[in-house]
Amino acid sequence: MAMKRHSIRFTVILTILSVLFSCTSHSYSAYENELRRIDEALERSEEYVRIKQQKISTIENMLHSRGVTPLQQYHIYGQLYLEYQPFQFDKAKETLDNQLNIALETGNDSLRMNALLNKAMLLTTAGFYLEADEVFARIDTAALAIDQMTEWYNARQKFLHDYQEYVTTSSIDVPDASNVTLYQDRILENTPENLPVNRHIRIMRMIEGKDFEKAYNENLHFIESLDKDSRDYAVQTYWQGFICENLDRTDELIKWWTESALCDIRGAIKDNASLCSIAIKLSDPQDTDRAFRYINVSLDDALYYNAKLRKVQIASTLPWILKTYTDSKELQSRERSRYFICTVCIALLLLVFCVVTVRLYVKGRRNASEIESKNLQLAEYYHSVIDAEENLKQTNLDLIEANAAKEEYLGLFLSMCSGYLDKLKKNLTRDQFDAELKNFYKTFDTSFLSLYPTFVEEFNALLKEDSRVKVKDGELLSTELRIFALIKLGITQSSHIASLLRYSVNTIYNYRAQVKNAALENRENFEETVRKIGSKR
Q1: pLDDT for position 155
Q2: What whole-number distance in Å separates Cα of residue 177 and Cα of residue 164?
Q3: More confident residue, 239 or 352
Q4: Cα–Cα distance measured from residue 261 to residue 259, given in angstroms and rounded to the nearest whole number
């Protein structure tokens, strides 16, 4: 009877354990294979950038070679422009300006027109429409050769199309906007059908006409003819994803945007759009960490490239991404709490089971075979306890990672708020801006102290008694405390801290040096010690 009761208990407990462990299973992203390819490429992104920089350095060295003529310098600058054009806007613009200077010195109007055409297209692509329009005004179309005229049609139709879209919500009127179709017709009439610009214009007109099935097939053939490492490949695979989005082929659009993003990453193309588009599509809770990481990479690329249009486009998606990320973190927090409760229940059940087993072992001591059986069971239960302990350890690690994510999120939140203050500054009076700035400081102080409520006390404990920081009435943190609060969050560059707190870099540096000089122990490791405040929580 005792063995029968034990068997029943064992069966019930195993059933409960299987149900509890099933609640901790988690699903994988529907696009896991594609996203893993992007993650692997991003891990090597710095290597790809170094390759690009080495190539640029090699070309720049050619400019200073002995005996290089002005005409040769012009063409070397042309090679340099092709490298900088998707990599760094300011450098690309500077390169074209150097070409223009050489063309003016040599009096060669054809070379000058080439440089102006490239500059007009560069400014258009980067969203500097007023500057681009000024460049167009300097181009004498009557002096252009046939191939240059095609380039002018292409640059002009893109300028008018993009500028019209940019100002569509305002009352600004774009002169000559009705000629977009005319300029496209001129390109199609004067170029072979297999030329990339001809094929691209035809595909874009199909998209504008919402003939997505035809655009899909035509663009697919175009993509098959392109080098997978070329900028054209990155552009056309992005548009193929856009076409799939309009055809409701979500799985396929991720595939094409992945191809485009991989081409951008491997080619160190900083003027890109696919990675940001993928981040917006990752709406499942298990994908939000990736989406947040991808949008960060896109924003970093946009800042590095330094063209205003891409930064504005990415900034418009950030609120939505942040909301999704926050909702996901809240969901994950609830799931971790549930997993923790499940784990505790498992541990308690195992403890009860072990007690029951010991009692059965004592009662069945007279039977050697039963003793051996109970020993084997005890060994199994012991391993189960070990597994439960490992689960508890993993849960603790997950909680630590969640705190780190909160710090990272708070740092990004501050950077965004600071960026918005910069944009609002020109539209606010001095008093209004000071009020917004004061509110920004208060928001940061409150948010930070909610994460680390004992930060002020622990920070002062690191300083000599006569140098400890005192907070004024009505304030939560002083300037010194805010600086080291940012350092605690991982923001260590004085320039970045100065930008967030609206001080000069020298002021931040002086505050840091003054506080470190007042440290009780080794001042060289003072900031690292500050980073560890609250780490045991």
Answers
A1: 97
A2: 7
A3: 239
A4: 6
Domain definitions of the chain by residue range: 1-28+284-425, 428-537
The mean per-residue pLDDT over the stretch 167-189 comes to 85
For 452-498, the three-class secondary structure string (H helix, E strand, C coil) is: CCCHHHHHHCCECHHHCCCCCCCCCCCHHHHHHHHHHCCCCCHHHHH
Burial grade of 179 (CB within 10 A; 0-12, 13-18, 19 or more): middle
Cα(44)–Cα(48) distance, integer angstroms:
7
Instruction: Give the three-state DSSP class for 519.
Output: strand
Alpha helices in 85-230 (DSSP H): 89-106, 109-126, 129-137, 146-166, 180-190, 196-208, 212-224
Adjacent-strand bridge partners of 519: 463
Predicted pLDDT at 168: 75
Per-residue H/E/C for 183-214: HHHHHHHHCCCCCHHHHHHHHHHHHHCCCHHH
Q: What's the gap between Cα 80 and its chain centre?
A: 27
Of the candidates 235, 197, 226, 222, the one whose C-alpha atom is nearest the C-alpha of residue 86 is: 235
**pTM attached to this predicted model:** 0.57
521: left (phi over 0), alpha (psi -120 to 50) or beta: beta
Higher pLDDT pick, 333 / 124:
124
Please state which of the ranges 143-152, 193-202, 269-278, 407-416 shows the lowest mean pLDDT.
Answer: 407-416
Phi and psi at residue 149, to the nearest 5°: -65, -40
Q: Which amino acid is at 191?
A: T
**Angstrom distance (rounded) from CA 297 to CA 321:** 13
Q: Which of 14-18, 356-360, 470-474, 521-525 has the lowest mean pLDDT?
A: 14-18
Question: What separation in angstroms does the CA of 129 have from each of 123, 139, 505, 509?
Answer: 7, 16, 34, 39
Range of weakest confidence among 68-72, 290-294, 381-385? 381-385
Rounded average pLDDT over 413-437: 75
For helices 231-246 and 250-266, what crossing angle results, to 10°? Answer: 160
